[in-house]
Amino acid sequence: MNSFIYQVHLNFKRLVWRNLKFFFFNLLLPLAFYLLFTKVMTVEMPKEALIVWKEDYLISMIIYSMLLSAVISVSNTFHDDNKQHFTLFVELSPVSKIRYYVSTLLVFITMSSLSTLGLSISGIIINQINFSSSAWLFLIILLPIIASPLMLIGIMISFSDSSNVINLLSNLIVFPMAIFSGLWFPLEILPKWIQKIGSYLLPYHLAELSKNICHNSLTLNKMNVLYIILWTSLLGILTWIINTFQNKKELHRL
């Protein structure tokens, strides 16, 4: 147990302190969107609707921050580890590869919690967001854990051999997913076919679950929970298949 804690500490120093640009990118871009859509583009909105909009958009930007970290930061981190032969060092050491993945993902969950805390403080200061204490605890502590399956997307992308392909895939996944899930714009104002696709996506159900909990005193929507479980299972299976295929490919090269 002590060695695992030490490994998490080592990964935190290695991944966060040496890559602060990832952390600030995951925080500043959602914050810029939050300021734009709650301070600039809400001039004619009624007061009561504006309060709900500011709360809901904060939740959307928190999910968006997690999506950025889970896909872009995770994929680049694991790719760099492989390129710099850090994963080879893990395979040759007594440390299991599963523990390497778990400790690294735990660092990214912590980063998501810190980003959420930063966005939450900004929401309180800028727009006087007033959630209950239990709602804040859910957003800062539990939501990063519930949203961790998004990191499986980043892991799958990291299996690519080229950093250019990784960056291309990351952008092709993150930004359309943010739009189709209703994180940037309300899903109701988008075309019907986008609404249909968006209603099946994981970020949409993470956002809807969070909004329901924050507005309705920790009430769970069973459909949101079901979709999150199904997406977790699907992404887990796909990651296992791609990882198995990648390992066989590397063995053939040898």
Automatic annotation (TrEMBL):
<feature type="domain" description="ABC-2 type transporter transmembrane">
    <location>
        <begin position="55"/>
        <end position="242"/>
    </location>
</feature>
<protein>
    <submittedName>
        <fullName>ABC transporter permease</fullName>
    </submittedName>
</protein>
<feature type="transmembrane region" description="Helical">
    <location>
        <begin position="225"/>
        <end position="245"/>
    </location>
</feature>
<feature type="transmembrane region" description="Helical">
    <location>
        <begin position="100"/>
        <end position="129"/>
    </location>
</feature>
<feature type="transmembrane region" description="Helical">
    <location>
        <begin position="20"/>
        <end position="37"/>
    </location>
</feature>
<keyword id="KW-0472">Membrane</keyword>
<dbReference type="InterPro" id="IPR051784">
    <property type="entry name" value="Nod_factor_ABC_transporter"/>
</dbReference>
<dbReference type="Pfam" id="PF12698">
    <property type="entry name" value="ABC2_membrane_3"/>
</dbReference>
<keyword id="KW-1133">Transmembrane helix</keyword>
<dbReference type="InterPro" id="IPR013525">
    <property type="entry name" value="ABC2_TM"/>
</dbReference>
<feature type="transmembrane region" description="Helical">
    <location>
        <begin position="57"/>
        <end position="79"/>
    </location>
</feature>
<keyword id="KW-0812">Transmembrane</keyword>
<feature type="transmembrane region" description="Helical">
    <location>
        <begin position="135"/>
        <end position="159"/>
    </location>
</feature>
<feature type="transmembrane region" description="Helical">
    <location>
        <begin position="166"/>
        <end position="185"/>
    </location>
</feature>
